[in-house]
Amino acid sequence: MAESTKQIKTEPGARQPSTEAQPPVESASPEINSISKTAGGVTAALTAARVAFSEMGVVRGTRTLLQLNQKQGVDCPGCAWPEPDGERSHFEFCEEGAKHVADEATYRRITPEFFAKWSVSELSQKSDLWLNRQGRITHPMVRLEGSDHYEAIHWPDAFALISRELNSLNSPDEAIFYTSGRTSNEAAFLYQLFVRQFGTNNLPDCSNMCHESSGTGMKEAIGYGKGTVTLEDFDLCDAIFVIGQNPGTNHPRMLTTLLHAKRRGCKIVHINPLPETGLARFKHPQEFWTWLGEGTKLADLFVQVRINGDVALLKGMVKRVLDAEDHRPGQVLDHEFIRSYTTGFDEFRSALTKVHFGDILEQSGVSQAQIEDAARIFIESERVIFCWAMGLTQHKNAVANIQEIVNLMLLRGQLGKPGAGLCPVRGHSNVQGDRTMGIWERPTAEFLNRLSEEFDFEPPRRDGYDTVHAIQAMHDGNAKLFFALGGNFLSATPDTEYTAEALRRCHLTVHVSTKLNRAHLITGKQALILPCLGRTEVDVQSSGPQFVSTENSMAVVETSQGKLEPASEHLLSEPAIVAGVAKATLDSRTTMDWDALISNYDLIRNHIEHVVPGFENYNERVRKPDRFYLPNPIRNREFKTRDGRAHFTVHPLPQIPLQSDQFLMMTMRSHDQFNTTIYGLDDRYRGIRNGRRVVFLNPEDIKLAGFHDGQMVDLISHFESEERIARRFTIVPYSIPRRCAATYFPEANVLVPVRYFADKSHTPASKSVVISIRPAADTGFHHQDTKSQRAS
Ligand code: SF4
User: Fold this and answer.
1) Phi/psi of residue 152, nearest 5 degrees
2) Distance from C-alpha of 635 to C-alpha of 681, rounded to nearest angstrom
3) In this structure, which of 88, 220, 255, 616 has its CB flanked by the most CB atoms within 10 Å?
């Protein structure tokens, strides 16, 4: 280690906590098999059935799956890919969707007796998979100061405890109110109202960690931060570019959309550091007559870009588009669109002439021929859609990634015409809706004014903390109470040990949850788990059964209504929990009748209609079978920027220098995982079985570094003068560009520095972490035997 290097003691065993922030190292080595050639098919169908039936039973499982994503059914709690307008099949779900509902609707239960048996310290030594498998939490639970066990608490006492702690803070800004993307529109709207009436805008959310960069980049460039296309556009486009995204695992029903597009002759280009099976070949699981065949080849072109080589690649494509225009003046660029709707084109073109193609090739890691192939498909297609996900948004230069796509699309007027546009694909069912409802640490003055008018109070105007700054505030003692409406904050966030310490320093941590996760085990002095109804369950309030609503990736608002008996009679709905906390806390600071709002969610939607544009006649329109679309100004070529125009933007080629022994690492999901929820230890499409602590490396790099396949190594990340260590990962040779590495989160989150985030959007840069790799130190590390090290 260089003399000036500061070792951040982040590896398990380095500090003296009573509980473990990181999952234990698996005892067995993972099995490494060949990569799957085809996604979907009979395996996906059987896996969906097996998981659903084993957790829910055959009858209940079948009934629940048949309601999934149906009109007036249950909106899948998984990703935010939309369902088609018009007729739907009986099977509007994928393998992952089946896993999500089975996970929630499981028969397994965690009762107070479970918590009496297991101490928090003991639970923290269990794997994330084990924790999740224990089932649904049945009672509100409290961990009192000094105790190593959770014990049952009555709801009024839980609300009183939260109220006491909130009201004893020096300032409302000492409380953090986090939201996960499962929260419904109704719960999210009430929550932000309560938080603002309490007096703060500290409303970080999971969007801060995923598509914040998309929203920031698009808003700045085109005045609109959401996707500009609908599913219908996928029926009309000539080319679809899927960049920095693995739909086969993360948005599986998108493969059906791609399949239909492909069958009618649409070209598909996949740009990603790893080839992903879903985009190679796909068999629709419900087209059983295709099960025996080899599936449909989806991607016409796979461009294996280096990690964070996207800006370079996109600039290369832009250069080729401009070259083509030089050869065929007036036939390639959409001059009319550029003239009428954009600004900054001349500066953009002139800046690009200074970028050398040699640098583009080196930084993208892509051959000139492939860049030309991608550019040719783009130029020859009248209507193009660009889709992307976290592969673009979790870099220091993530906003530039998004804006380079916008630049390319503006050149040929690919916004505001049928069959063309931008499609940031959201990973959690209502992450987009929550933001629309006002879950944002930087609300606009317009939104706050309307809130003030509707509820007759003066909301706070100071910006609140986003996720990374909330963690730092808790760590530095500037925030003392953490409240999470859903999610697994500890495992979703970067810098695991730092974040754990931040949570431990709080006076109170509160989690509204359905199942046990690691965030419940790393607590403040006191902690509460408030168990809530799941999406699949009946929500009965005093006026009768209620439904909630969500907004998907394409700004369609629709209902979700559970039909199953709740997992326990002690559960409350998320809106009821928010109302309970608000009533107990706010006293004269609110004039709201919170009980009335909870008695009938139509009343909440009435308020939303008055505050949030686009929700006119909310109660009436959301009940219609065809749901409703929120306004999308880009479809009419209305660019709500300062000057009413779309902006070409100029960005330098990103530079992340690597020393000779260093790699650029990205974190990603396995196929048996949804966000931080671990369903199993396999990553079927990538050929990994029974293990998650793996590092995917290029075979040449493995050889050159003197490692061998299957070797156990430690990963060390380097940021400024700090080092962080993640122990005992198994090397997997894989098709990945040279000097790149890939690992799963949350295991590798410990390597991502909390202060390393995207410019402007502050999204953690989990996809471009500089690491070095060394043979595993023989610490014999696993949680059960590291107590002595930890104590020293
Ligand atoms: S594609 Fe997404 S929303 Fe649809 S069933 Fe699968 S996980 Fe659920």
Assistant:
1) -65, 150
2) 43
3) 255
At 63, the amino acid letter reads R
Q: Smallest Cα–Cα separation from 23: which of 530, 525, 743, 726? A: 726
> How confident is the model at residue 792, as a pLDDT?
23
Closest ligand 1 atom to Cα of 252: 1
Give the ligand 1 atom nearest the CA of 253: 1
pLDDT value at position 209? 94
Burial class (CB in 10 A: 0-12, 13-18, 19+), 386: buried
Q: Is 705 in the pocket of ligand 1 (CB under 6 A)?
A: no
**d(C-alpha 214, C-alpha 758), whole Å:** 11
Cβ(223) to ligand 1 under 6 A?
Answer: no
Give CA angle at 702 (696, 708), nearest 5°.
95
Residue 189 beta carbon below 6 angstroms from any ligand 1 atom: no
Q: Going by C-beta distance under 8 Å and a sequence separation of 6 or more, which residues neighbour residue 444? A: none
The rounded Å distance from CA 662 to ligand 1 centre is: 37
The alpha carbon of 2 and the centre of ligand 1 are apart by a number of angstroms equal to 47
CB 736, CB 742: distance < 8 Å: yes
What residues of the chain score a pLDDT lower than 70? 1-18, 26-27, 288-289, 291-292, 778-792
CA distances from 148 to 120, 123, 132, 623 (A): 5, 10, 20, 47
Average pLDDT, the chain: 92
Cβ of 771 closer than 6 Å to ligand 1, yes or no, is no
What's the pLDDT at 108? Answer: 95
Enter the pTM of the model. 0.94
**Read out DSSP for 721-733?**
TEEEEEEEEEEEE
- R_g of the chain, CA atoms, integer Å: 25
Kindly state the tokens that stand for 60: 């209940």
According to the model, what pLDDT value does residue 778 have?
A: 67
Please tell me the distance from the alpha carbon of residue 630 to that of residue 226, in angstroms, as a whole number: 11
The residue written with tokens 């909630």 in the block is: 548
Model confidence pLDDT, tens digit, residues 704-737:
999 999 999 999 999 999 999 999 999 999 999 9
Look at strands 281-283 and 296-297 and give their pairing: antiparallel
DSSP 8-state symbol, 152 = E
